[in-house]
Amino acid sequence: MHCVVPGxxxxxxxxxxxxxxxxxxxxxxxLSRLFRRLFLEALQKSFEAGAxxxxxxxxxxxxxxxxxxxxxxxxxxxxxxxxxxxxGGPARSCAIWAATPTAWRSPTTACSAxxxxxxxxxxxxxxxxxxxxxGYVEQHGIRLALNDGVAGFEKGAxxxxxxxxxxxxxxxxxxVILALGVRPDTTLAKAAGLEVGQRGGIRVDEHMRxxxxxxxxVGDAVEVKDFVxxxxxxxxxxxxxxxxxxxAADVIAGRESRxxxxxxxxxxxxxxxxxxx
Length: 277
Fold this sequence. Notes:
The protein is of the alpha/beta class.
């Protein structure tokens, strides 16, 4: 946490600025304990006003007694404060602070992630591996809303946003990041009656032929076999896509060329089958 502490203050009559003695405003030990008291008092007031939200493993702190015990433990812990003169002078520090988004400064900000049509994050991963990642991000205060895609946005007061989801829920936000990832567009393949796999890609054989032998498919839209597990995988990488295109061209030209498979992202199955060393 970064805080701007002025090196002085305005006089009682408001007519002038009174600077502190050369050096820092307060000794570091005094500053750390003063900051601890003021910060915990602000947390208590926010809790009483209902302005705090608790998620994941912090949900128990919604209880008044549990929150009080949490603050008591924090008050008995020695806080470490490192004070230094601002880079570029006070004017530069204030300019940076003024430009910092509200979401970075608010101690009550919560982040949410929505997955439009899946029960896990990181679709290429096995569910067992994805659950580990989900637990990690939830420990850092990120709420996961799986199987619930974003339907739209509404602008609120003070330039805030409200995220509307397909299930009818709404989430207030200061900043929204659209991290859509990659998904094969298989509309034409489905219309042509080609087989589309469980991961959403067009299934091809080692010659890059689809289930219609007269149609070839390559690149990010295809499912191929993982050469470690032998299972179907969807890997959107430039290297395999380039290789698949050249193999398809070879086969069309009558050459004997085949794709040996690719290495899918880390999965529990590949870990189990990985050779020693």
